[in-house]
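The pair is set out directly below:
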Amino acid sequence: MGFEHIPLTSCYLGLPLFRSQKVKDFNFLVDYLDSKLASWKAQLLSMAGHLTLIKSVALALPIYAMHLIKVPKTICARMDARIRRFWWGSNDTNSRPLCLKAWDDIYVPKANGGLEFRRMTDMNLVLLSKWRWDFLTRSTSYCLSFLQSKYLRTEGFWTAKMTPIDSSFWKAVLGSRDLLLKGACIQIGDGSSVNIWEDPWVLNCHDFKPKPHGPHQGFFLSC
């Protein structure tokens, strides 16, 4: 039919077209970060220069990919390690720089004495959660309408379950649901789109979901 053969290493918009959940398929993120760090003279920069480059470039490089795919924790850990070495003045992956402060203390907000660096795993989870937040806020984009017609035809947003035939992107989005469940609560309007037993909508309940209580289950709510 005239289709052109595409090699397995082909990319589209910077992401590989053919990938699995194997770590090697995500090495391009580490390689991209290494190529940037190699061009910076870590030992010649001030700490302010290190901070600016890390926040404006190094932490921004994987945002597009992390918005669409679940990056393995191994890859995220390797990227975090590269950034730590650069912060302490070394680009050599075979050396161990002298660290003057625990990295967990550097991650915290500036108001608490940190520098507000972000962990790659946390960035990935938050960016994927943005898709679910868009569903919650009833966004009318064409992309969300397509996803809703494909994956949410018979189930609601909160009760949708993962199936083996789902795409890796949708599985990653569903995997971020627990983060929203910790603090998202529905503001009731006319109640037509709310499942009162499955959706989080009761502010005073522990998980925002009502619990039947008493001798007549379903007539009284316990929070």
Summary: The chain has nine helices and four strands. The mean pLDDT is 78.
